[in-house]
Write a structure and sequence with these properties.
8 strands; mainly alpha; 402 residues; three-stranded antiparallel beta sheet; 47% helix; hpI Integrase, Chain A; DNA polymerase, domain 1; 3 domains
Length: 402
């Protein structure tokens, strides 16, 4: 007689799915927990800790917790281990932040936090000395067997993300006592960052007018329109990528476009050269690869967005780098953001008026928390043209026609 191929059904207690019937525990943010004497206690992170393991840990600790004592230490379990906190943090942030930002957090965890602290180390046992090992790893980069020191700005980014994980654990009371890094994850001093910039980028991180004109002379129709739009208002590559038709009045040259990074309101005036370049680009603009991109002004040759939240790297930045190399002006520290630096530098060259500087900050989309900025809704077109004229005069040696 043939044997049945049906597998024996698993019992409900073997099922690691969230909150089985009759469970003494709850599963919140993928963490097994139970409120005892008004305080929520945690017994592992799903799926690293199965339902059975979480219940076993709860049974081991519940009488001590009910009596108001601290959870008894169990070194044989990974409960409240560093890896549990990191897993819970990534689960909590998924969907709340951009994919690239989430990937940056995961990189810091995989490269620095877990190797420096130890995956299975109980989080309650962490001391500032443990975070010194994390900081040491952040400051050294090994590429193809070559070891070199990492720049202070990069270290600052690493430290900021690592502190976010600690703050997350402390806010949710994932340990019996708050975790302290003892200052080892503090940002590098501003003096150190300035010294690094002065020594590493001795030629500056902006582009001269001659360099920009050389790049424009070899740029294709779209890149010429992009560069003229960016230098005229200090836009970054992500601003260019998400610039839509409803942001621009091409006939009058007015652009109303909140900064995507901060959603700070801003407006600016396009140069005549930029408006003409955009018109020429729209005549040869490819069909968008997806319907949702139909309202984006600038697209790649394949009809895709000039920005990706899924992958590292900057498509528009790479294209700009190609132009810099072809023009012979590529150097360390120069990227698409150099146009934004050139814009602000040009404004400061042509004016010493503090009011003009504030208008330039408004065009750049800088955050201003003053009461005046809260109530001011816009600047006049005349004032925007004046600021635009400073940069245009710097680049072309022309005055803006009234």
């Amino acid at each position: 007689m043939a044997h049945s191929t049906h597998k024996k059904a698993r019992s409900k207690t073997d099922d690691p799915s969230p909150n089985p019937p009759g469970s003494p525990l709850s599963l919140i943010n993928n963490r097994w927990c139970k409120k005892i004497k008004g305080k929520r206690h945690y017994f592992g992170t799903y799926p690293r800790t199965t339902y059975r393991e979480a219940v076993a840990e709860y049974e081991r600790c519940r009488f001590d917790l009910a009596a108001g004592h601290a959870k008894p230490r169990n070194l044989s379990t990974t409960e409240n281990a560093v890896a549990d906190i990191c897993d819970a943090f990534l689960v909590d942030r998924k969907g709340k932040i951009g994919n690239r930002t989430w990937s940056d957090y995961k990189t810091v965890i995989d490269k620095f936090v877990l190797p420096g602290l130890g995956k299975e180390k109980p989080a309650d046992d962490l001391t500032p000395a443990d975070f010194k090992r994390v900081r040491d790893r952040m400051e050294i980069s090994t590429v193809v067997g070559e070891t070199k020191k990492v720049g202070p700005k990069t270290v600052e980014n690493y430290c900021t993300r690592a502190r976010a994980i600690i703050n997350f654990a402390n806010e949710l009371q994932m340990t019996e006592r708050p975790i302290s890094h003892g200052g080892y994850l503090a940002n590098p001093e501003i003096k150190l960052k300035r010294k690094y910039v002065n020594e590493t980028y001795s030629e500056g991180r902006d582009l001269s007018r001659e360099e920009i004109l050389d790049v424009l002379s070899i740029a294709d129709t779209q890149m010429k329109a992009i560069i003229l739009t960016a230098i005229g208002a200090g836009l970054l590559s992500v601003d260019i990528a998400y610039l839509r038709f409803n942001h621009i009045d091409l006939e009058n040259g007015m652009v109303i476009y909140p900064r995507r990074k901060t959603e700070v309101a801003r407006s600016f005036v396009l140069w005549p050269e930029a408006r003409q370049a955009i018109r020429e680009w729209l005549e040869v603009r490819p069909e968008p690869h997806e319907a949702e991109l139909s309202d984006h002004i600038f697209l790649t040759s394949f009809g895709n967005l000039w920005h990706s939240d899924e992958h590292r790297g900057n498509p528009l930045g790479r294209e700009f780098k190609k132009l810099l190399k072809a023009a012979g002006h590529d150097r360390k520290g120069i990227s698409f953001s150099a146009l934004r630096k050139s814009y602000r530098t040009a404004v400061s060259i042509y004016t010493t008026d503090e009011a003009d500087e504030k208008i330039a900050d408004y065009i750049c989309g800088h955050s201003n928390r003053s009461m005046r900025a809260r109530y001011r809704q816009r600047y006049s077109r005349k004032k925007l043209i004046r600021i635009s004229g400073y940069v245009r005069r710097w680049l072309y040696g022309k005055r803006v026609a009234k």
